[in-house]
Amino acid sequence: MTKRSLLAIAIASLTSQAALAAPFLPMDARGLAMGNTGVASAARAHAPAYNPSLLSQGSEDDDFALLFPQLGANVSDEEELVDEAQLISDEIFPAFEDAIEGSGISDGLDNNLDTLTTRISQLETAINSGNAAQIKTANDNLKAALTLVDGDLDLTQSSITDLTESLGNISGSPLSARLGVGGALAIPSKKFAAAVSVSGSANISGRVNFADSDLDLLNSYVPAAQGYIDAAENVTSEIDSATADNNVLPSEVAALKLAVEDLQDYSYTSGDGTVIFDNGELSDAASNANLSSTAEIVAVAIADVGVSFSREFDIAGEAVAIGITPKLQMITTYHYADEVDGFEDVEEDDLEDSKEDYSNVNLDIGASWRFGGEKKWIVGVVGKNLLGGEFDYADVTVTPKDSNGNPNGLPYTIDGGSVSLEPQFRAGLAYDGDWVNAAIDLDLMENDPIAFESATQFLAFGAEFDVFGTVQLRAGYRTNLSNSGSDIVSVGLGLSPFGVHFDIAAMANIDNPESEAGVALETGFYF
């Protein structure tokens, strides 16, 4: 039957190939702790990542600031893929395997089908003898074998139903993750501010697609076996009639021979063309099925080097800060695919062969305005990656393999495509107090995913409590307006003695922490 490695490999590919949409999510610890807000609330060296105009919204006493390193990661399991995969691996597939191959309480369908084939051969020998007693004994043995196989079918069908339902649940569902690293040096000023920032992110989109043909194959075993049983039961009924008077006529012997020969010629082909039974026996193709389902990965690595400039302007009597960040981007795309049957590890050479490198120039522009009696309120708006960009990923060749990883079929190609770096727009409102800072951010448009995941349009809230300028306590909330069930809560802690900052943050899905979680940390120096 299908090998245990078939599913174990599929699960491994699901849990090792991460997937990611392209949201507006800088990977800084302060912003993540405050729900990923920052368009109106980012401070000094954080400004280039959110809104370059905020370089001109600080105090006149602010001097330069340095952030390095900034590290962050988040993982999102949108469809609870890991839990389903674990259930399949731990319970559902072992139950299917036991039904087919046997366990401590059952010989298994495969073994009992072998016994059934043996009993049919013995019946053929008895019929050839023409002895009614021998024929009746062989027929009784065949009936007993049929009873065992018939009992196996209920258990097998139940396990296959559970398995195919679970495979259908995880087919095409992505596992999402994001890794980021960055740093910035900023010199804030109302008259002329500047910053240099660097960042890198790994954006990987992956999924496992279980082919309909594979599900058809799994669903063929029981109908194939049931057809064999029905044909065998018809033969036993004919024998009961022929031997009712404990005597078998020559004409009856001839008819029984033909019936057994027809049974031994029994064949069954699944919807995908795989022969399940051939000449009355389970075929090699069914015993060691080759599945055509694939694991596919599209990966995009983006490195940004930006120089930000900002200053405050008098517009209609109001001080409005405007900032700009021209940046050079280095983009690398990868495309990898392999069949899950026989899949073990991502072949580094194959991944490298699909590598495509690009360079791109892009632009961020932001504006912000302080208002209120004490100028404690700030409103901001930013457009990021305004020049956009589209980058191809290569076609990939898939070589079919057996369950041991050995090539056993003709290679075929999965077409490549392109990923887009689309402009992003966000607005924010913040309160900048002496002890309390609060912020709300909203994506002004939906952000498309890189490849396989859900689109994003975030609404985020956050607050920071500054205790004597030395300890900062932070909390936040974020929801995706484009996808229900993805509400996030976040917390963080900052320590800032003598201008040295150390910040950590963590976030998780409010309803199911296992479906999305993330962490970030950074070290900074503010003077």
Automatic annotation (TrEMBL):
<feature type="signal peptide">
    <location>
        <begin position="1"/>
        <end position="21"/>
    </location>
</feature>
<keyword id="KW-0732">Signal</keyword>
<dbReference type="InterPro" id="IPR032811">
    <property type="entry name" value="Put_conjugal_transfer"/>
</dbReference>
<dbReference type="Pfam" id="PF13729">
    <property type="entry name" value="TraF_2"/>
</dbReference>
<protein>
    <submittedName>
        <fullName>Conjugal transfer protein TraF</fullName>
    </submittedName>
</protein>
